[in-house]
Known about the structure:
The structure holds 2 protein chains of 2 kinds. Chain A is an alpha+beta fold.
Amino acid sequence: MLNELPIQVTDYLLNKINPFTGLLILRLNNKGVIDKWKGNPKDYLCNEIKKGVRVDELIPALTGLIPFDSESIKLTRLQLKDDKYTDVHIVKDNGNYWIIFVDQTKEVDKLKDLLQNMNERELHEKDAYENPFKNVDRLNFATFRKEKQNGFCLLPNVPEWLKKHPLYNTKTNELDPVKAFPFLEVFFVEIGNFWKDYEENYIVSETWSETFGGKDHYMRAFAVNFNEENYLFIKSFIREGVEEQNLLQAFRDSALAFDKLAKAEKKLKELLVYKNKFNSIISHDLRAPIAAVLGVVDLISSDEDELNKLNEGYRELLLSIKDEMLRLLDYNDKLYHWANLELGNFNLEIQEVSVSEIFEIAGNTAKGKCDEKNIKLQVEIAEDKIIKVDKTLFLQVLNNLLSNAVKFTPEGNDITLSEVVNDGKLFINVHDTGIGMKEDVVKNLFEDSLRGTTVGTSGEKGTGLGLGIIKKVVDAHGFAITASSKPGKGTTFSIEIPGTSVV
Amino acid sequence: MIKKKICMLGAFAVGKTSLVQRFVNSIFSEKYQTTIGVKIDQKIVKINEREINLMLWDIHGEDNFQKVKPSYIMGAAGYFIVVDVTRGDTLEVGMSLQKMADNMSNGAPYIVLFNKTDLDKEEWDISDSVINDLKNSGVNVILTSAKEGTGVEEAFTGLTQMMINN
């Protein structure tokens, strides 16, 4: 039924009714006969709702109301059922009447005790009549009448919180608000000539707080003109004050936390730069001594006479030293590149290169490692194209990919370096027939640039930096790289290169 | 007894309330409790054998949510500009409030309090040279810590003395 609500009724629901906790809607024809309803009538009414019956037969409180000429009628806080208070809204729409029952029981319960109390006192206590605003003390308002000869007269009844003020005279029931609340001097300036005009209206001050009677009191002052008299109200509102404070506090706590985070981030970035600079310098300076040791090992291992002086064990040791030093050099080079890439210490020197040329160089570099494991490197070029790359850096990418492919491919298997043109896009693929990777590993392959290293099929060790370098260089070119893999079947890395031309 | 109004001005969470609480009640709370509107406290001090009732207007911190109304400063005999040494932007906020306070108070004396100096110097966002430059330009500056009480008594008695001499 709610879907059928005409625009007049939905407008009324949205704009004229406060947020509600329960709702019953009836639709009547132009004679007040019930046609449809939505909601639970038992929650609001004593009688059951029946289709085809006049509404005032079931709800006597509505007798004589329908039909009416205006657009809508509102009846507030009707007790249509014991202990149940309901606001009844009747809205007219092209020959139909819509009755909306809104549960107000909770709201009434909140006010019931206060109203009961105020009414009883008004009936029994004469004092209350001395204050034209009657029992406003029950709402925590202190009332002062501004006297013609200056000064203020505190009117009864005096709210309990004001009686705790150190300047309140308990014998005479007097208190000078100007002396008691220094904040008022600011408020009185702000209201200007408001009191002199006597025009019936009011102005509210900003909040201020003071501590007395062992409590923090949040207060607001109200300047009021009423019946040719000037009044000053002061309201203490501990609870609302705290709520407002909590809200503002939450905003400010967030602002402070954000400040701290921003500072921590700045420090962290400085530390990262420092770390990368440190890595860059150390790895640069380590190159010379590593190369020197390698040079000596090379010198000895290429001298037959010297080698013959060594027994078999020492010769193997020498080869092992050479292998380890080469690995150290490779690791150091990668660390150097990686640190400089992280620092942004590189400018791409873009040049036009044919795919065939770059494949040839990369193939030659990988040949040695392939031969060691008896791996066949197949090169496939669909259509030789010109690509725009930083030749040195892009070769580093291919070298790293091929080196990885060799590492994870068992002896005697194949590796393919291919160029594929698909849907007008150029892809460079490095495919191996190696051990492959699980799906979750592939998914996060490029997210962590510093990955742990995995041992190759012949016990090869890696640096864990290779993929980080590849991603940085590919990103710097504006290319994209993806990986697909199946455990036991192999892995394919694919670089997508936009903007190419035929050689 | 003479009454003098002192305003505490500054960005939010610089420690204005903490300084007043340290001075008036000798207490300090680590918990940040934002001030709504104005909190008014009083303390009687003795300067040169004269008793003076200081009305301390602890005015809410300035930020996007709450702007300090110039009328709060009316009638002030002196004021503090409170700055958090670990938040550089609070000095800018403080100095812009000082301009407003100078207009509203007809050039009443003031002291800039660099608060939270108990925190590790590494966390300071305001350098010694900035503080010294301000001092050298003729501004009265005191380094304070509401937490440890450093400079608090000196600040309030110093400003009171300046107000009497003014």
